Amino acid sequence: MPQITVRFRRFTSLNTTIRLREGQIHASLSDLLEGAPDTVIRAIAHILLAKLYKKPIDAAQNLRYKRFSSSAAVTRQTELIRGARGNKRFSGPEGRFYNLEEVFDALNTRFFGGLLGRPELTWSEGMAKRSLGHYDAAHNTIVVSQVFDRPSSPRYAIEYLLYHEMLHLKHPVKMRGVRRCVHSREFKADEACFPQLKEALAFIRRL
Ligand SMILES: [Zn+2]
Hints:
With 207 residues, this protein is of the alpha/beta class.
């Protein structure tokens, strides 16, 4: 068996490469796959080796990899990293109609006794509709989609989105066995306290 070197690299996509050079196999994987479960890593290894040696790819392994790479979490992380690493920059808290820092501070006083530390707040660069709001713990940043930064967008909709993400600051992800519990019972109970929850959800559905 040839010696195998695997590197995780900062790709902006999930690109994976493999080559055989001077009797050694070099594989490069996106760092987005670094935290993938063993079964997925195994599937990737299978696919890469099958490609390298021109052998058929096992359908079950292929499906496992496809399922993982298209899962919502990975998709979102890919978009986020693409946004942060590409030429585009996030546009900061000051929008054309709403200032996220002002909304955050008001919510902090109203619902959290002013106790939450303010993370980085920014409007998304594009008009993302798949990810309306997102808290990125690694960069301590709340990103809100720019689709909300317009006069037809009621303030309570932005407030609700920010409030939801602020609850992620208050209730960090819990592990229940091997499962990550992102929206715990306590989280949901707090969320239900938002006065215009129904109106906000209805607006988002229409959007
Ligand atoms: Zn959430």
